[in-house]
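Retro notes (design track)

What went well: tokenization of the new backbones is finally stable.
What didn't: we kept losing track of which sequence belonged to which structure.
Fix going forward: every design gets posted as structure first, then sequence, in one message. First example under the new rule, 83 residues:
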């Protein structure tokens, strides 16, 4: 569904999971049902937030590496140098 952008197949998949004996997936399905429309839209959209998430992860790693060693000014310089 994720690769083929076929979010419309999600309800059918969820019903199949409910009939299987897989309690971990039952919990996943219950979570997906809370905002099913948004999940289907996310699986169907051609847009991706991968680039933004990658930048967030990079900044968090740089921040974590400098924890307790420097202030915001050095963090800013390190982030801008690698951009």
């Amino acid at each position: 569904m994720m690769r083929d952008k076929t979010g419309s197949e999600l309800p059918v998949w969820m019903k199949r999971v409910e009939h299987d004996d897989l309690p971990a997936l039952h919990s996943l399905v219950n979570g997906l049902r809370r905002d099913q429309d948004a999940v289907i839209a996310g699986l169907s959209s051609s847009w991706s937030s991968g680039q933004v998430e990658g930048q967030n992860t990079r900044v968090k790693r740089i921040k974590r590496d400098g924890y307790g060693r420097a202030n915001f000014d050095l963090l800013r310089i390190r982030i801008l140098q690698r951009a």
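Added context from the reviewer: The helical segments are 10-19, 23-34, 36-44, 50-65, 72-82.
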